[in-house]
Design goal:
The complex is a heterodimer of chains A (124) and B (106).
Chain A lengths: L2 E4 L3 E3 L5 E8 L7 E7 L5 E8 L5 E3 L7 E6 L4 E6 L8 E8 L11 E4 L3 E5 L2
Chain B lengths: L3 E4 L2 E4 L5 E7 L7 E6 L6 E5 L3 E2 L7 E6 L2 E6 L9 E6 L5 E2 L3 E5 L1
Parallel strand pairs in B: 2-11
Antiparallel strand pairs in B: 1-3, 3-8, 4-5, 4-9, 5-6, 7-8, 9-10, 9-11
The chains are: A mainly beta (124), B mainly beta (106).
């Protein structure tokens, strides 16, 4: 079955960087895009950006431009999200989510399935 | 940025009752709207996409309607496992989510 398995929880100091991984299985990795969505404690969902696993094209949320980089490794069917210059308000659960439909033309479509989430805590 | 406003913030109902959740967009999103369900400690799950299409494996008691700026998620007869938080999401212009509606047991 289609599955996205994320890396484990991280604790980082303000100003540091974090890199979260998302390993996909059960489908052709390069046929679908991957989005990253975060959820601060007790809060709603925030879309961070999207990457095409086919050609590496990316689209990032404007508020995170310059701090976030999304990449993929097609040899291991893994997507990565790196966030730099961490602040306390970056504390959140970070989810990867696959496009519902394949062959997206350059923008995410709907998000399904999702990874299990990775808690990133930013604290001094 | 398109803002999605969900109402009510909390909905208290009993199993077997009908639930009606609303999502209003600050400008037209055509039919580019989805609904997700999230249970505590779990990732969200896609229920409805393109405003009215049920995702794979979603029971028929879940239905979506609307277009433009006003959308509704209806659960025809609540089951115990339906009590959760529900989010709407648009992809017409960038991607944004509503703030969620918590469906709780009365």
């Amino acid at each position: 079955q289609v599955q996205l398995v994320q890396s484990g929880a991280e604790v980082k100091k303000p100003g540091a960087s974090v890199k979260v991984s998302c390993k996909a299985s059960g489908y052709t990795f390069t046929s679908y895009g991957i989005s990253w969505v975060r959820q601060a404690p007790g809060q709603g969902l925030e879309w961070m950006g999207w990457i095409s696993a086919y050609n590496g094209n990316t689209n990032y949320a404007q508020k995170l431009q310059g701090r976030v980089t999304m990449t993929t490794d097609t040899s291991t069917s893994t997507a990565y999200m790196e966030l730099r210059s961490l602040r306390s308000d970056d504390t959140a659960v970070y989810y990867c989510a696959r496009d519902f439909f394949p062959y997206s033309s350059g923008w995410p479509n709907w998000f399904d399935p999702w990874g299990q989430g990775t808690l990133v805590t930013v604290s001094s | 940025e398109i803002v999605l406003t969900q109402s009510p913030a909390t909905l208290s109902l009993s199993p077997g009752e009908r639930a009606t959740l609303s999502c209003r967009a600050s400008q037209s999103v055509s039919s580019y709207l989805a609904w997700y369900q999230q249970k505590p400690g779990q990732a969200p799950r896609l229920l409805i996409y393109d405003a009215s299409n049920r995702a794979t494996g979603i029971p028929a008691r879940f239905s979506g309607s609307g277009s433009g700026t006003d959308f509704t998620l209806t659960i025809s007869s609540l089951e115990p496992e339906d009590f959760a938080v529900y989010y709407c999401q648009q992809r017409s212009n960038w991607d944004t989510f509503g703030q969620g509606t918590k469906l709780e047991i009365k």
